[in-house]
Predict the 3D structure of the following.
Amino acid sequence: MTETPTSPAPASTAAGTDERAVFVLADEALLAVVRQVREDQWDLPTRAEVTTSDPDSDPTLRELLNYHAYDDAWVPAMLAGRTMAEVGEDAHSGDLLGADPVAAFERLVEDAVAAAQGLDDPDRTVHCSFGDYSARDYLWQVISFRALRAVEIARLIGADDQLEPELVEALLAYLRVHAEEWRSYGVFGPALPAPEGATAQEELLALTGRRPR
C-alpha cells in the first residue's frame, strides 16, 4: 500500500536489524510531526517541500496526511496476509481524519504499530495492490515512506526535521544497498550530492533525491 510500487528485494541491511522495530520508529516519527501541525496549517500546499510520484500534484497537508492515514489503516490487514478483496477495497476510503485529525492519526498509528510488533513471520506474503511481497520487504517500503515524509512535513510546518539516529542508521544501511534499484522503479529521483562532512541523515536525504539540509 505504499505510494509507489517497488519490486521485491532481499532485506539486506545491518546485521541484527529488526525491520519491525524500525517500522515503529518510522511510524512514530511521522506521528510526532503530525502532532505539531497547527490548526492554520492543515490547508498548506505541500509541493514546495514534499516529493510525490506526481510532481504536478500539490495536495494540501490534510490531503497528504489523509493518504498516510489510509496507508496506515491497511497495515494490520496487510501484515496478517489478507488481500484487499478480502477486506474490501473501499474499506479505508474517504476522509479518515475527521474533526480531530491528530487523534484519528494517533489511533491508526497505534493499530499499525501493534500489528508490526505482533508480526511473527517476516517472510509472510503481503498482498499489496501492486504485487506480492514478503512482510519484511513491505515493512521496508513503508519505513522509507514514513521516515522521509516525516522530514518533509517537518520542514513544511517549521518543526524540527531530525529523525531518531537508530531510524536513520537502519534505513540508510538498507538504502545504500537498494536505492538504485528503487530509483529504477521511479521511487526516488536522482541522487543529490551530500555536503562535505554530511551527517547520516543528510546522506540519507541526498541518496533519496531530497535536499540534505
